[in-house]
Design brief:
The protein folds into two domains: about 1-175, Cytochrome c-like domain (Cytochrome Bc1 Complex, Chain D, domain 2); about 180-345, Cytochrome Bc1 Complex, Chain D, domain 2. The chain is about 30% helix and about 0% strand. The protein contains 13 helices and two strands. By secondary structure, the protein is mainly α. It has a two-stranded antiparallel sheet with strand order 1-2. The longest helix has 13 residues, at about 160-170. The chain starts with about 40 loop residues before the first helix and ends in a 9-residue tail after the last helix. The protein has helices at about 40-50, 65, 115-125, 130-140, 145-155, 160-170, 180-185, 195-200, 250-255, 285-295, 305-310, 330-340, 345; strands at about 235, 265.
């Protein structure tokens, strides 16, 4: 019984939750945790239970982990995720790695905090299809949960606010920082020659006139987090998947600004080797297909990102298709670098695993 772990002390006094200190790489940069939802051991343990509990869905068949599998870097391996109704959702599942550094959530950025994000899939009729009041009633009747909420929040009261806070606390601990890329940064390993070439290409914006070759990846997937990071509504891009007549709303659905049509969040590329299929709609099955898209198959539209429009390793010819002009070897080098972002420690960390 989990409840036995959350009992009062010998004098009947409920101890305060124990603060949890996260170990985070300095090169990831600063982050903020909400003042009203600081991390505690008890809150994270509760959030972990809730994350894996299928009873958060109407028919007890779907949990958060159903679409966010640890072995797949908390994605699900599907082009379009499937919820309780068995109907494909409009988008694929994003990785939950390093959410601590995010400020906008979902592909279109419609949530501004993990707390806000946490409850939306529960009520979505295509995902878990259970009202929050019904979810709370169900949790109150499960013997393990009242004492766990008490340990995490000071009383056995189970509320929507506390449900969201516990789920958010657990997700903030999902830090991926032990890939080969990280070990190179820490001076513990070295890149192969191919991986080093790929890293240089990845982070270089090409300039044909200056003779600078680059893959143009780092313009959207920046620095050590390799994106996923947003400030306000930056970090959202139209990356040339569709023409104007086929563009989905994307960020426009949140901002109401037509210039945001077709813009989606640039996800983190950490563990990208594990998170196929790719793009918001899972249209590409392999990294090779992704590189072919950016190299040869950019589709023109009115909101196409200028960072893509103006990037090429050869002189840009007006009114000609947009192409990067990478060589086959350069594409292979970039993919070799991308595979250094795989973090086996992350996908096997028992602290993130199913507690049931």
């Amino acid at each position: 019984m989990v409840a036995s772990l959350w009992s009062c002390d010998d004098e009947g006094v409920i101890p305060d939750p124990t603060p949890l200190e996260l170990e985070t790489p300095s090169y990831f940069g600063d982050f903020q945790v909400p003042a009203d939802n600081t991390l505690t051991n008890e809150g994270v343990a509760l959030g972990r239970m809730l994350f894996y509990d299928k009873r958060l869905s109407l028919d007890n068949s779907v949990s958060c982990s159903s679409c966010h599998d640890q072995q797949l870097a908390f994605t699900d391996g599907l082009a379009l995720s499937v919820g309780i109704a068995g109907t494909p959702l409009p988008v694929s599942s994003m990785s939950l790695a390093n959410q601590l550094w995010n400020t906008r959530f979902f592909w279109n950025g419609r949530a501004s905090s993990l707390e806000e994000q946490a409850l939306l899939p529960i009520e979505n009729p295509l995902e878990m299809n259970q009202s929050i009041p019904a979810t709370l009633t169900k949790l109150r009747a499960i013997g393990d949960y009242p004492p766990m909420f008490q340990a995490a929040f000071g009383s056995q009261e189970i509320t929507a606010d506390r449900l969201a806070k516990a789920l958010a606390q657990f997700q903030r601990t999902l830090i991926s920082a032990d890939s080969k890329f990280d070990r190179v940064l820490r001076g513990e390993e070295q890149f192969t020659d191919q991986e080093l070439r790929g890293r240089q290409l990845f982070f270089t914006h090409p300039d044909a006139q200056a003779g600078i070759r680059g893959g143009n990846c780092g313009d959207c997937h920046s620095q050590f987090l390799t994106s996923g990071f947003t400030t306000g509504f930056d970090g959202f891009h139209n990356n040339g998947l569709d023409s104007d007549q086929n563009l989905r709303p994307g960020l426009e659905a949140v901002t109401g600004n037509p210039t945001d049509r077709g813009k989606f969040k640039a996800p983190t590329l950490r563990n990208i080797e594990l998170t196929a299929p790719y793009m918001h709609d899972g249209r590409f099955n392999t990294l090779e297909e992704v590189l072919d898209h950016y190299n040869d198959n950019i589709v023109e539209s009115s909101t196409l990102d200028v960072l893509i429009r103006e990037a090429s390793n050869e002189d840009i010819i007006p009114n000609q298709p947009i192409k990067l002009h990478l060589t086959q070897q350069e594409k292979e080098d970039i993919i070799a670098f991308l595979k250094t972002l795989t973090d086996n420690t992350f996908i096997n960390n028992e602290k993130f695993s199913d507690p049931f």
